[in-house]
Amino acid sequence: MHTAPLTSDHTDPEPPEWWRQAVVYQVYPRSFADADGDGIGDLRGILSRVRYLADLGIDAVWLSPFYPSELADGGYDVADYRDVDPRLGTLDDFDALVEALHAEGIRVVVDIVPNHTSNKHAWFQEALAAGRGSAARARYIFRDGAGPDGSQPPADWVSVFGGPAWEPVGDGQWYFHNFAVEQPDLDWSNPQVRADFVHTLRFWSDRGVDGFRIDVAHMLTKDFVDPLPSQAELDAIPRDGNHPMIDRDDVHEVYAEWREVFDSYDPPRTAVAEAWVEPSRIPLYARAESLGQAFNFDLLEADFDATQFRRIVTDNLTLAAQSGSSTTWVLSNHDVVRHATRYGLPDAERGTDGRPLRKHGNEWLLSGGTRPELDAAAGIRRARAASLFVLGLPGSAYVYQGEELGLHEVAAIDDEHRQDPTFFRSPGEDIGRDGCRVPLPWTAEGSSFGFGDDGAHLPQPAWFADLAVAVQDGDPASTLALYRRALALRHELQTGEALTWVETGRHDVLQFHRPNGWTVVTNFGTEPFDLPADADIALSSGPLDGRVLPGETTVWISAR
Which of 56, 66, 328, 516 has the most CB atoms around its CB within 10 Å? Predict the structure, then answer.
C-alpha cells in the first residue's frame, strides 16, 4: 500500500541547480592531510588528496575555516577573512586547490563566520586602542559595566561555550562574546560591517568559490535595549523573530543583500545556513531570496529508530516544499559525536518534546569512552545502514570527513592535548568536540598514519590503523567501498526530488520509492525482513542471505 508522494516544489528530472541534490564532503582542513609535516593539515595536503575525493564521487567540497586564526575555536575565530592562515598555506595554494577540484568536476564551498571575529582581528585591536565612543568600537558590541566604576558585567549572561558572555577591557567597558572570549561579536547594525562582508563574499567568489556555508546564520543581528535583561529573562523570551539576539527577522535584510551578490555571478553562488532555529522558521533561511538552503540537523539528534527517521524525513521534505529549496541530510559534522559512535551507545534520554536532554554521547566522552559501554560493531553496522538510507533520499547530503571510513569518535584524549574551548570553559560538564576532529588515517603505519611526516596536532588512537584508507582501499566489504559505490549509483539513479513511502507491515522497517523506480529499504530492527523474490538488489550496507534483509541493514533496489 502506497501513501501520498512527498516532494519539494522542484521535481524537474534534471535540476539545473547543482546543489539541490549534491553530495557535499566537509573537509576540516587542519585534520585532513598535512603536506609540510608540521602536524597541522593544510591546503597543499588537501591538494595532494584531490584524486581520493574524485574517486569517492562527491559533487562538492566544503572547506571549514582556513583563514588566519589563533585557533581559540578551531579556526572559527577569524583574524582576516580574505587570506589563508600561513600555517595552512597561501592564496596561491588556495587558487591551485580550487583549480584542481574544478578540473575533477568538484565544486568548492567555503565557511563564512560573520557573527564574530577573532580578538586578533585588526578591527578589534583598533577598537581596544580607540576607546569608548569611537567608531572602531561601534563595529562591535560594547557596553559600560555596572556599578560606580564599571567593574561589574552589564548582564549576567552566559556564553554558549560556558562562562560569562561579557569581558572587561579595562576602561569600564565590556564587550559581548556569545562564544569564546577570543570571539567578540560584531554589530550588524553598522554599515561598515555589512559592507565588509559583501567585499569578502565577492573576494572569494571572484577566486572561483561556488558557494558559502554561513556559520551561526541565525545570530548576526541583535537588539540590546538598556537595561539589559537577566539571563533568566533572556531565556524566557520567545524565539519568534523578535528575540534580542537569536533568529531575528531583521537578519534576512542582511541575506537579501547577500543574495544580490550571489545572483550577480553566473552561475549564481550558493549558500547554506547553519541555523539552529524552530522548524517553522527554517524556510525563511532556505527561500530563494535569502540564503537558498538551510541545514536540517534533526538526524544529528535522532536515535537509530525507524519512527524518528520517518518523521524527520517527512517533516523536512514538507519544509523544503514551503521554501522551494531542497533539504539537507547530515549524520555527522565537526561539532557532534560521530554517528558510528552515537549508534553504538544507548539511545539518548529524551524530554517530553522528544528532544535529547543532553548531547548524545556526552557521558561516554566524560568517562574517557568507558561508560556506558560502546558496542562498536553495532555502531558501524547501523551507521552504514543509516548512511545508505540518507544517500537514497531526495535533497543534498553532507558527508563529514572520515565517516566514509567508518571512524568512531575518539574519546581517550589527555587533557593536555585538548583544544576545544568548550572543554576549558565547561570543566566536568562538556568534554568538547576534539574527538571528531582527530586527523584522518591514510596508512596503517607512520607517526600519524599517513596524515603527515611528523605526528598530528591531536593524538590518533592505535585502532585508526585498521580503518586507514590504504587498508580499506580495494576491499569490497569496507565502508570506503560502500560509500564509493553508493555515490556512483546515486548519480546514476537520482532523478526528481520526491519519494513515496511504501508500507511494510513492520514499524521498524522503512521503505520508499524514488521517481524512477529506485527503492530503498532499511531494517532498523533486529529481526530479518523478507524482500520480494524478484528484487534487483543494487547495493546493500551489509551481507544478505538471499532476499532476506537482516536487521540494521539497508538495501537499494533498482528498477528492472
Answer: 66
**Sheet order of strands, 396-400 included:** 270-273, 211-214, 107-112, 60-63, 23-27, 396-400, 328-330
CA distances, 524 to each of 210, 285, 532 (Å): 37, 32, 18
545 to each of 345, 474, 527, 537, 550, how far by Cα in Å?
A: 27, 23, 13, 12, 8
**CA separation for the pair 296, 255 (Å, rounded):** 19
- 399 φ, ψ (degrees, to nearest 5): -110, 125
Cα 15 from chain centroid? 24
Instruction: Please state, as a whole number, how many other Cβ atoms lie within 10 Å of the Cβ of residue 249.
Output: 13
What's the rounded Cα separation, in Å, for the pair 437 and 457?
10
Would you call 205 helix, strand, or coil by DSSP? Answer: helix
Non-local CB neighbours of 151 within 8 Å, separated by 6+ positions: 145, 168, 172
Is the distance from CB of 464 to CB of 449 less than 8 angstroms? Answer: yes
Parallel/antiparallel/unpaired status of strands 211-214 and 107-112: parallel
Other Cβ atoms closer than 10 A to 253: 13
Query: Given the DSSP bridges, would you call strands 529-530 and 519-523 parallel, antiparallel or unpaired?
Result: unpaired
| C-beta of residue 489 within 8 angstroms of C-beta of residue 482 | no
Q: Are 395 and 20 in contact (CB under 8 A)?
A: yes
Cα 73 from Cα 69, distance rounded (Å): 9
17's CB contacts (< 8 A; 6+ apart) are 270
Closest CA to 116 of 187, 188, 184: 184
Beta-carbon contacts of 87 under 8 Å, excluding residues fewer than 6 positions away, are 38, 40, 42
23-27/166-168 β-pairing: unpaired
Among 437, 446, 505, smallest CA distance to 27 is for 437
Separation of alpha carbons 157 and 166, rounded Å:
7
Amino acid at 331: L
Under the banding of pLDDT at 50, 70 and 90, the label for residue 15 is: very low
State residue 282 phi and psi, 5-degree precision. -60, -40
Q: DSSP for 377-401, please give it.
A: HHHHHHHHHHHHHHHTSSSEEEEET
Looking at residue 230, the DSSP 8-state letter turns out to be P
pLDDT tens digit string along 180-207? Answer: 999 999 999 999 999 999 999 999 999 9
Cβ neighbours, 10 Å, residue 418: 17
CB-based contacts of 260, cutoff 8 Å, min separation 6: none
- pTM of the predicted model as reported, rounded to 2 decimal places: 0.96
Distance CA 380, CA 256 (A): 42
Q: Specify the amino acid at residue 304.
A: F
Q: Where are the beta strands (DSSP E) in 76-154?
A: 107-112, 142-144
C-alpha cell at 414: 589527555
Question: Can you give the length of the chain in residues?
Answer: 560
What are the tens digits of pLDDT across the range 473-515?
Answer: 989 999 999 999 999 999 999 989 999 999 999 999 999 999 9
